[in-house]
Amino acid sequence: MKKNIILLLFLVALPFVSCDDDGPYGDYLVARPILEDAISFKAEAIDIIDPVPIQSSGKIYAYKDFIFINDVGSGFHVIDNNDPVNPKNIAFIKLEGNNDISIKDDKLFADSYGDLVIFDISDINNISLTSRMVNAIYKNYDVRVQNVEFPQADIYDYGNIDYDRYVVVGWEVNMERRPVSEYEEQYRCDNCEFFTTDNAINTAQENVGQGGSMARFRIVGDYLYVVDYSDLNIFDISDLETPVAMDDVSVAWDIETIFAQGEVLFIGGRQGMYIYDIKDPAKPEFISEFRHGTACDPVVVDGSYAYITLQGGGFCGNTESGLYVVDISDLKNPELKVIYPMFGPNGLGIKGDKLFICDGSDGLKVFDKSNAPNITPLNHFRNIEAYDVIPLQNSLLMIGNGTLRQYEYLGK
Fold this sequence. Notes:
mainly beta; 2 helices; signal; 5-stranded antiparallel sheet; 2 domains; Methylamine Dehydrogenase, Chain H; single chain
């Protein structure tokens, strides 16, 4: 059983950085933000309105019988999916500067211009704003605003921006002569240490919604974890209406996604996968990392194996595209077991022994992973563009190339 909703798909381009050393000085593309007064700019940034056509679809999120579809930089659409054969677009939550959401106990957490915004959705027909934490996330990289893409540049010169007064509405990029040390300093990752931990099993959270593998938001217990471009932002949400911001944790440049298994976080980035212990959820501790070539890198984990799709080419990097299966039975020493060639993979998901991989224009691929790290193909849905999946209990959600598809599981 399938049901299509026609959308427009917009992929946010994040910066690709390569290392260069021409001596004490070099020529670099330098990006400076264009600013606008935050008070007037944010005044009309939030509203609950009737359904509107989707302009630039981003990520998807499932909660109870509803699907939330991000309209990149503008907010998200609320889809009533009680009848998957006939889903209904029932509202649009206007939230400028938005890219991600996460939900627990009818409280919806979302980003907006680097702020953390909380909505009450207990009455889906009367959604209300609960609170807004100014500059709680993306504090140093407040760039995903008003559909303004992160520019391609070597150095990002933010200056001393007062984010309580200004937001970024554009970029000016110029070639400038700068010290090589300035370029190198911007992409360093210092103070990385190793900690020990035990492996953990996946713990279901019935009162928490489900995002795809491209998500930057992840709720674990009473904590919300959000990755920006280099840091892990942590919020104590034991009081859902009044979250408390904890100390950020510096991870690495170009981190993109976050996945949780038990008391362990797996953070995907363009240079590798980073593993953190959250036995003390307010103070994640670095365990280890698995390095790979530069590529876009979502990750999902099941038991003793991590499954990482690497997409090379374009802004993602020069690494050959493929599925990497990594043994994480010893979290301190993740070990690559096998690489399966792929065309141009994006998101992926797991349900039981089934592994679903969105392989770009080569479609949706289904594998049996019961004999991991060896996987065997089961099905291939061709002639569609596949971007990300959410394996639900009774159906599979997939988005790609402007279409949200729902699949019914058949057979074992």
